[in-house]
Specification:
This protein is an alpha+beta fold. 24% of the residues lie in helices and 34% in strands. Helix 2 packs across helix 3, helix 3 packs across helix 4 and helix 4 runs parallel beside helix 5. The radius of gyration is 24 Å and the shape is elongated.
Length: 358
């Protein structure tokens, strides 16, 4: 397998810059997930690693060798696409072995490689079938098998599960995770689905508007988001935000929300007295408390999920969500009082950057 390094990599289409000085070191055997909304540049970055898009500025190295000008087929990288890209007239076995046959590998080597990949992916019963006789999940496994038999330096996945239904996506996430554990392969995976990112990644690269916002382990981004974008994008349901201002007194700080509600913090945060801040808290960390201990909220909508219930609230006129596994809340009254545990709060400055509070 291989390490991949991007140093100040940028991409422009004419006068339009779509990627801005991306720095990223991918370790040998790591599973990196590029995540972000549509148009953030994640697929363009993946295609630049593959050699399908030219690099405008910066340097891309694979195992320490600069590959900016190297053709895709000379980078020893296998790519799995969203659309499967299988040959409809070929059997599963022929699709999987095609790249090896093009390289004129010995027949016994090809048969052994196909057999090993097929066994890993549960494709043995389908080797004689053509793609039209397969389900979407089976076709995606064939596309992965075609990549595996090449034994490339790295695997690139471009939103490979986007065309599958929810249950198949869940199954294929498990397949991809098992494959990575078995092969120890360096992998770069693109998705806009933050659940895929959280469940698959060794590290997540959160992107927005062509720039990297944060790089870290999935729970690092969940527990300590670097800014408002990451806080709002990672997590489902998304993080709640309320506007307030800082009141500094001695060695402690207080966030004062609208209507005068005060949240004392255990430390003094690095903000000026009176400075505007944004308070964030995840819906699963919001609690229902006695009236005298919290903030009044109006219930607008109740969504049972099976696992629990999502309450859509209005807090100081702003949309707010609470997630709980307490099914009694399905019959919730129209008014309730919510608590915001201090140890679960996130504070962001007026530029949107996270302030340390613990």
């Amino acid at each position: 397998m291989a390490s991949i390094a991007l140093s100040r990599v940028g991409k422009s289409f004419g006068p339009v810059s779509v990627l801005h000085e991306v720095d990223l070191d991918i370790r040998d055997g790591e599973f990196i997930v590029l995540v972000g909304p549509s148009g953030c540049g994640k697929s363009t970055l993946l295609r630049m690693i593959a050699g399908l898009e030219d690099i405008t500025t910066g340097t891309l190295t694979i195992d320490g060798e600069r590959v900016n000008e190297r053709r895709p087929r000379d980078r020893d990288i296998a790519m799995v696409f969203q659309s499967y890209a299988l040959y409809p007239h070929m059997t599963v076995a022929d699709n999987m072995s095609y790249s090896l046959r093009l390289r004129r590998r010995p027949k016994d080597v090809i048969a052994q490689a196909v057999s090993a990949a097929s066994a890993k992916l549960g494709l043995d019963p389908y080797l004689a079938r053509r793609p039209k006789a397969l389900s979407g999940g089976q076709r995606q496994r064939v596309a992965m098998g075609r990549a595996i038999v090449r034994k490339p330096k790295a695997f690139l996945f471009d939103e490979p599960l986007s065309n599958l239904d929810a249950r198949l996506r869940e199954q294929m996430r498990a397949e991809i995770k098992r494959m990575h554990a078995d092969l120890g392969a360096t992998s770069v995976y693109v998705t806009h689905d933050q659940i895929e990112a959280m469940t698959l990644a060794s590290r997540i690269v959160a992107m927005n508007a062509g720039s990297v916002q944060q790089i870290g382990a999935p729970l690092d981004l969940y527990d300590r988001p670097a800014n408002l974008f990451v806080a709002g994008f990672i997590g489902s349901p998304g993080m709640n935000f309320l506007e307030g201002r800082v009141e500094q007194r001695g060695e402690t700080s207080t966030v004062v929300l609208s209507k005068g509600f005060r949240l004392p913090l255990p430390v003094r945060i690095p903000a000026a007295d009176g400075e505007a801040v944004t308070l964030g808290i995840r819906p699963e960390h919001v609690s229902v408390v006695p009236e005298q201990d919290g903030i009044a909220a109006t219930v607008e909508l109740v969504e049972p999920t099976g696992l629990g219930v999502i309450l859509h609230l209005l807090v100081h006129g702003e949309p707010f969500k609470l997630f709980s596994t307490d099914r009694a809340l399905i019959q919730s009254q129209t008014q309730l009082t919510i608590g915001l545990p201090k140890e679960r709060l996130h504070i962001f400055d007026k530029a949107g950057n996270r302030l340390p509070i613990a």
